């Protein structure tokens, strides 16, 4: 679909020093295209180009930057079908997901940050008495958001469009320049996004994209002395290594890491609603999403109904070619990742969990598929209940009373998004405030796209989305003067 892709460095399309590597369609195992392998020198050149472009871009009027983002949104929306076809081929997402949740969300995010917001606000005056610092007086102050500088954006494989747009759009809106290092599994979509920005009139060097299969590409993009901030979405283990490098260079960081979302289902919950919400783990990106409610804590009075309902729900889902409009569950991203998920299913059985449904591969000739899998009778100390599996696997754990449910939910290394299902609104909000998670969904897995997004504990550092992303990609400067 894409032939041999070139790198995007300093506003030019450049042949890669390291040649190309194959990008595989996880549904068909056929070649989608050939991604470029950047050398260390080319990554450093991209960072240097972003540094050179930062001064002029940061001084550009916010309205002009917003106009570029608005044009990019229009271009992406206008090319939705071919862009979604490529996204589906690279990621294995269904057509509906690729159009609506990948390319469609990317266009919406560029449109969102094409809206200029105030970047300064007044601080109440302060009356100072005479002293060592000078005579008495009234001092005014102004807080001003300033761009950070050059931002390296390391993106995830599960949604190359929306994840990249969620970093690049607010970073550019604040006057930063970016170097994007896409996930090696599906980088071609990110180069299409760069093409859209180029067509929208983004100046040379403001956006750069470099890819590679090995760790060196990302490590160089993070450690370059031209880089001021790193925005990363991915595993906690990789995030820790990036954070160590950022610490050595005193670089700002925004980390959106792993999750093991607890779904606390109380006796008085709308069980059909809970099952439909939790069931998105099976279908949405085939469970390859950090916000999924993968760890179900069901109160004893509804435990059997929840298990039976989830088993029936999973059994009804059509697994197969994501291009087929009847398909609900597509493939996992690679054969290696499917092997990893399958190893967790087997581990769960060895730990004593009951395999209620799934656990095997569907009868398909090609593709990296796994049937939606439900493990019941789990305990919170099992590895399948504690570690992020990142696949269509849900574990169910019983609890008796509210305090026990909260304790089990919080007994996790992760804290990205948890969920509460209860017919008692007061209890639902009470429990939500007790959960150690960056976000809590009450009787829903839906999101408010202006609400802050990020995690507690090993699920991340910082917050983005909406106006919070503008804060994330900026430094706050204080200006003080005598009144």
The radius of gyration is 24 Å
Strand tally is 22
Strand content: 15-25%
Helical segment count: 16
Short description:
With 483 residues, the chain is an alpha/beta fold.
Describe the fold and architecture.
The protein has 483 residues and is of the alpha/beta class. It has two domains: 275 residues, Aldehyde Dehydrogenase, Chain A, domain 1 (3-Layer(aba) Sandwich); 195 residues, Aldehyde Dehydrogenase, Chain A, domain 2 (3-Layer(aba) Sandwich). Helices cover 39% and strands 22% of the residues. It contains 16 helices and 22 strands. The strands form six sheets. A seven-stranded mixed sheet has the order 14-15-16-13-12-18-19, sandwiched between helices. A six-stranded mixed sheet has the order 9-8-7-10-11-21, sandwiched between helices. Strands 5-6-22 form a three-stranded antiparallel sheet. Strand 1 and strand 2 form a beta hairpin. The longest helix is centred in the first third of the chain and has 19 residues. It is globular, with a radius of gyration of 24 Å. The model has no long low-confidence stretch (mean pLDDT 96).
